[in-house]
Amino acid sequence: MSGSLSIPAPTRDAVVNNCYTGTPGAMVNGVKTFSKVADALEDAPSNSARPYTIFIKNGKYYEKLTIAKPFITLVGESRDKAILTFDIASDTRKPDGTTYGTFGSASVSVIASNFSAENLTVENGFDYPANAAKAENDPTKLANSQAVALKTDAGSDKAVFKNVSFIGYQDTLYINAGRHYFKNCLITGHVDFIFGAGQAVFDDCDIVSRDRGSTSNNGYVTAASTQLASPYGFLFINSRLKKETLAMADGSVTLGRPWHPTTNLLDGSRAADPNAVGSVVFKNCQMEAHIASKGWDAMSGKDKDGNTIWFQPQDSRFYEYGSTGPGALKGDTRKVLTDSEAQKYAIANVLGGWDPEQPATGMLGH
User: Fold this and answer.
1) Is the dihedral of CA 50, 355, 67, 124 positive or negative?
2) Architecture in CATH of 58-350
3) Which candidate in 171, 211, 273, 297 is catalytic?
4) What is the mean pLDDT of the segment spanning 133-140?
5) Tens digits of per-residue pLDDT, 304-363?
């Protein structure tokens, strides 16, 4: 999975090389060349109806990026050496004194359709362990240290990721809008590190839980907030749930918990969204011993009066089918699909008939 994929030079619409010192956008070997990804994105067409390919040479690109144009394709020279990174967390302060918040912390944000990425790394480089190790009275310690690597939000749909690494700790991958296909990807984190309301298929991926050093709670893989009106949320198929270290405590990670984000209610009050009933299915996945026998965890929210309420996993759409390995334990708290039920959780169904293996073409908005 860490091997390099190459794309022929004639199909490159632009090249980004952090060693380049010439004029941004100048032609080098017949291709527009930039030193920053943001400059290449700014120069890309705003209404392309075909993939516009930006080839990213090996290097670390410290940039906070937003993909706001359709049909952008980012292709790295190699997955582990072409790195898009930024390092802010929820409580990191902006120049105006306000904080970014979880959703504003993303290193890369996608808000346009038909985005694709392959053969690169998307990272939030915020040093979670160093922050956690600070004394409670240290004024530099951040209380809210969620740090998103990739976010997809309103406007995003038909996003494809192949051979991409997503590196973070808490809230690594925020999948909040549209349909997504992840193939041969690596995703690392510990607390709620794959979360949101979007539809996504994780096909043949490595899901790596990072070790917080706890003997009992090293986090939760997912925190889906799928809207009840949507029959599908996250499908993990033929994937592997791994632990970061051999010493990581057995039974210390759960498959997920039900996230009900705060929303506006009809009476004008704000409370945990009652219609966010997460859908997560692990189908034919290998699970190492860090996965807890209970399978899933509860998650708290607030009612309209500000009181803490708890949402239980058995009230969400959390299922398994064909789990294997030492973490695949049977129990009353782990709901298993029947053969006929499992057939419904197919890639085509989760993606609403969209085939991510077909070439992406079309008009804006389609």
Assistant:
1) negative
2) 3 Solenoid (2.160)
3) 171
4) 96
5) 999 999 999 999 999 999 999 999 988 889 999 999 999 999 999 999 999 999 877 664
Core vs surface per residue 112-135: b (16+ CB within 10 A) or e: bbbbbbbbbbbbbbbebeebeeee
The neighbour count for residue 183, using CB atoms within 10 Å, is: 18
Neighbours of 23 (CB within 10 A): 10
| Whole-angstrom distance, CA of residue 290 vs CA of residue 292 | 6
User: Which among 122, 53, 41 is positioned nearest to 84, based on CA atoms?
Assistant: 122
The predicted pLDDT at position 28 comes to 96
pLDDT given for residue 329 in this prediction = 86
289-310 burial, b for 16+ CB within 10 Å, e for fewer? bbbbeebbbebebeeeeeeeee
Among this protein's residues, is 305 annotated catalytic? Answer: no
Q: Is 95 left (phi over 0), alpha (psi -120 to 50) or beta?
A: alpha
What DSSP letter does each residue of 147-190 carry, written as one string? --SEEE-TT-BSEEEEEEEEE-STT-EEE-SSEEEEES-EEEES
- Say what the pLDDT of residue 365 is: 33
Angle, CA of 316, 113 and 180, to the nearest 5°: 35
The chain-wide mean pLDDT, for the chain, equals: 94
Residues 6+ apart with CB under 8 A from 264: 270
- For 10-15, the CB contacts below 8 A with 24+ separation are 11/53, 12/53, 12/54, 12/55, 12/75, 13/44, 13/52, 13/53, 13/54, 14/40, 14/43, 14/44, 14/52, 14/53, 14/54, 14/55, 15/40, 15/54, 15/55, 15/56, 15/57
- Domain positions in the chain are 58-350
Q: Is-catalytic flag, 91?
A: no
Catalytic position from the list 192, 211, 273, 297: 192
Pairing label, strands 173-175, 150-152: parallel
